[in-house]
Amino acid sequence: MSGSTYGKVFTISTFGESHGKAVGVVVDGVTPGVELGEQDIQKDLDRRRPGQSSVTTPRREADAVHIMSGVFEGKTTGTPVMMIVYNENQRSKDYDDIKDLFRPGHADYTYSVKYDNRDYRGSGRASGRETIGRVAAGAVAKKLLAAKGIKILASTKNIGGVRAEKYCPDEIEKNIVRTADPDAAPQMIDLIHKSIEVENSIGGIVECRISGVPAGVGEPVFDKLDAELAKAALSIGGVKAIEFGAGFAAAKMTGKEHSDEMDSTGFKSNNAGGIIGGISNGNEIVFRIAVKPTSSISRPQNTIDLNGREVVCETRGRHDPCLCPRIVPVLEAMSAIVLIDLIKQNAALQY
Ligand SMILES: Cc1cc2nc3c(=O)[nH]c(=O)nc-3n(C[C@H](O)[C@H](O)[C@H](O)COP(=O)(O)O)c2cc1C
User: Fold this and answer.
1) How confident is the model over 41-60, as pLDDT tens digits?
2) What pLDDT score does 58 carry?
3) Alpha-carbon span 262 to 212, nearest angstrom
4) Which residues pair with 24 in a beta bridge?
5) 314, HSE (Cβ side, Cα atoms, 13 Å)
6) Residue from 112, 127, 129, 330 whose mutation best tests the ligand 1 pocket (most atoms within 8 A of CB)
7) Ligand 1 probe mutation, 19, 44, 102, 123, most atoms within 8 A of CB
8) Ligand 1 centre and the CA of 265: distance in Å?
9) pLDDT the model gives residue 81
10) Which atom of ligand 1 is closest in space to residue 123's alpha carbon?
11) What confidence score (pLDDT) does residue 60 get?
12) Where are the strands (E) in 106-223, listed by range?
């Protein structure tokens, strides 16, 4: 069945493959009368684009967005907003060697089994490039949320075991790994450079914090706010786990420690991560995702080809040694899309 559309009231449908003509998104359910220009979208796409630093893929691409519909005289009309980015710097020849084999860790094998064919160039639809549409739609969602005082900030919490201990939000965009701890940034960068030297990759953790969400957002029981955020985060390529608030540490806590007690000023802690019973409680929403080490590495790896023969695979092409810095804007975008959709659903309930 189709799986390229997300949302019930604010809906997004992404389209395109890595080496096709273009990638993009159709967004429906956008509030009319909101000022929207390509510059609103481009600034987030620039945070996602390849070739931005020594810790991302060296592939250079402008990823310039074109708004094709849904905006008239600089304002949204309430009709579908279609946004497109043309693919420009593709080197499909880099992928000739892998067209008959399955690269370990990639979706090559599963796409082949499911569809009986696959666009092997740049991972086709399973490419990180698909997230361009998400980031573009997320920029629209962020704009609507900002008008309600809701702010979403993601940052790199951990790379290869180097942990961000401090949280200085103003620092996030000042370092190339996008961590909120300026002291941890050099060590994180060093680890990524070292993994490039040995033709390997490295994983990490990205944290997302959302402030200004009023209590009451989330639709129990199947469309709980945490369930929807989890689905959205896990739909990003390379994301393998998620935890809210105290998360997995809850397993070692007692009820007295974990329960967020209240006094007349509100909650005294935030172990729930701002969500109880699938509904926002007015606290900051906090969650973290585990990002796997990038599968494309230059080192030889064992696999099989289309005929089941054992072969050695060496991945050429230009890849990200660590996905975290580029997943930061993607996670913000997906969180914004989830939130605006649930806020609009909540408004419909109250009508
Ligand atoms: C922005 C972004 C860039 C990515 N770049 C790469 C890459 O260069 N090489 C790679 O192996 N995977 C990359 N990925 C991850 C793959 O898309 C993902 O691992 C693959 O589709 C398999 O899906 P899974 O890891 O979620 O199971 C990227 C993901 C994102 C979100």
Assistant:
1) 999 999 999 888 989 888 88
2) 82
3) 19
4) 15, 84
5) 5
6) 127
7) 123
8) 43
9) 98
10) 21
11) 83
12) 151-159, 162-163, 204-211
